[in-house]
Design goal:
heterodimer, A: mainly alpha, two-stranded antiparallel sheet, B: alpha/beta, Serine Threonine Protein Phosphatase 5, Tetratricopeptide repeat, five-stranded parallel beta sheet, 11 helices, rod-shaped
């Protein structure tokens, strides 16, 4: 049952799923990390091993950055429509519905998976594991692992809608105040 | 799983090899082993007496063991007979040659006033040994302190070995790598659509931001009783966003507050076609004349 739900969610949100994989591939290209295999529909990138901590963290967190950024961009006009309390109709609001769908589809694939977090921590070379930032990363990882546990309760959806609405609101507030 | 890094094609060496002669400084080698084990663990040090299982071929076992090491410590005492290094059957000779050929860091460790043999007295394959910086442990009095220094060298060698391992691995795999920034056409198409959507939404946003700004200015003016300012600001919003419910209701409230018959009729016309929620109606009732409130009561959605 869960597998079917997960499959349907992936199908419904395929632009976000592909974007997630493209984000990793793009991060690899940007950092000069060789990629041996890329399967966008399977969400799989096989890349060379890395021993620079910044690169490891950037690579594993790139979907979070890219998908959240795109989610906010798609949701921005939608969030402003809510602030203006505009009436939505099927006839007049096609673009708003399209942007909402795209925003949700990229937003639900932003959060890292538990396995990725564990791989990220495991890929940091031993000599860096006593540094303060490693402990910080460890702490952040615990939060993400806890979030991963909440996946079956729709945390991805809440993250997509929450960040998609809250970040534009805060930006608007800042823009108008200053 | 979304990404996987390559780890398996080459072996990453993880041990320190202790090379010594049993009739020379085996006591010191044993002490050294104990200290290194404290730092690297049981599996982190190769020391023949403890590590070779009974029945194993001594020669092949040592050569295979060196393949698993990133550093070779050569323990040299007073009885370290460099003449024996000329014999091809000498194990110490084989160990050092194997270490050199594998480009492992070799560290001579001197005890009891021993010195590294001069290059001229060494076989040509081992001449490099004379050039290496040695650790002089003297009589082993400050053993613990010297071992602490040695550990730093061990860590450095470990880092070098890991780097070498990664370089080899990446070199071997580079031929298999996909060209950077080359994506399938359908991925580019999808990214293009995404980029266009982002640009489209970006073009839309400035106008909306201006409207939100005017709306907030109008709401503030209404709260402070600056009616004409509020009316102008609400009109400004409605010009750009004619479907904004909040602007319509605020505008109607401002018109009701103005009090003229003309304004009241205009306000009634604006909200007359709207299906109002209970909250919206409650808000309107704050400024709407009582006789009109009856018209709208019971019509909320």
């Amino acid at each position: 049952m869960m597998i079917w739900i997960s499959f349907l969610v992936t199908l419904f949100t395929f632009p976000g799923f592909v974007t997630r994989t493209v984000a990793i591939r793009f991060a690899c290209d940007l950092l000069g990390v060789s990629v041996y295999e890329a399967r966008y529909f399977k969400g799989y990138i096989h890349h060379e091993s890395i021993d620079v901590p910044f690169k490891v963290v950037f690579l594993y967190f790139s979907p979070l950055l890219v998908n959240t950024f795109l989610c906010v961009m798609f949701f921005f006009p939608v969030a402003l429509e809510f602030l203006l309390d505009n009436d939505w109709t099927w006839e007049n609001s096609n673009i708003q519905f399209l942007l909402t769908w795209m925003g949700i589809s990229v937003g639900v694939h932003a959060l890292p998976y538990r396995l990725e977090i564990e791989e990220c921590l495991g890929d940091i070379p031993m000599e860096y594991r006593n540094d303060w930032w490693y402990w910080f990363l460890d702490f952040v990882s615990i939060i993400f692992i806890a979030i991963d546990f909440l996946r079956k309760f729709g945390v991805d959806f809440f993250y997509a809608v929450g960040s998609g609405m809250a970040i534009p609101y805060l930006i608007t507030k800042a823009f108008i105040t200053f | 799983m979304v990404s996987r890094s390559e780890r398996t094609s080459f072996y990453n060496p993880k041990k320190v090899f202790i090379s010594y002669r049993r009739n020379d400084a085996s006591g010191y080698a044993g002490r050294l082993y104990d200290h290194l084990v404290e730092h690297l663990g049981d599996t982190g040090v190769f020391y023949d007496v403890n590590t070779i299982p009974p029945g194993e071929n001594f020669e092949t076992y040592i050569e295979e063991a060196l393949a698993d090491c990133f550093m070779c410590i050569v323990v040299i005492g007073r009885q370290w007979d460099s003449e024996r290094l000329h014999s091809e059957h000498d194990f110490v000779r084989r160990e050092i040659i194997a270490a050199f050929s594998r480009e492992i860091r070799v560290v001579p460790m001197l005890f009891d006033g021993a010195k590294v043999p001069e290059a001229a007295t060494l076989p040509s394959e081992l001449a490099g040994l004379a050039q290496l910086q040695a650790y002089d442990f003297g009589s082993g009095r400050d053993f613990k302190q010297l071992v602490t220094q040695l550990i730093k060298v061990v860590e450095l060698a470990k880092k070098e070995a890991r780097q070498r391992h990664l370089t080899q691995l990446n070199k071997a795999m580079r031929d298999r790598a996909l060209p950077p920034h080359h994506y399938p056409i359908w991925v580019l198409f999808l990214c293009g659509i995404m980029a266009l959507s982002v640009v489209a939404s970006g073009l839309w946003v400035p106008r909306q931001l201006e409207s939100v700004k005017s709306l907030w200015v109008a709401e503030d003016a209404l709260l402070q009783g600056q009616i004409s300012k509020a009316i102008n600001a609400f009109l400004n919003v409605l010009e750009k966003e004619p479907n904004s419910r909040q602007a319509k209701i605020g505008f109607a409230m401002a018109l009701f507050q103005e009090g003229s018959t003309e304004s009241t009729v205009r306000a009634i016309n604006i909200i007359g076609n709207m299906t109002l929620s209970r909250q919206e109606l409650e808000r309107l009732n704050k400024t709407m004349p009582e006789k009109y409130q009856r018209l709208f009561s019971g019509r909320e959605r």
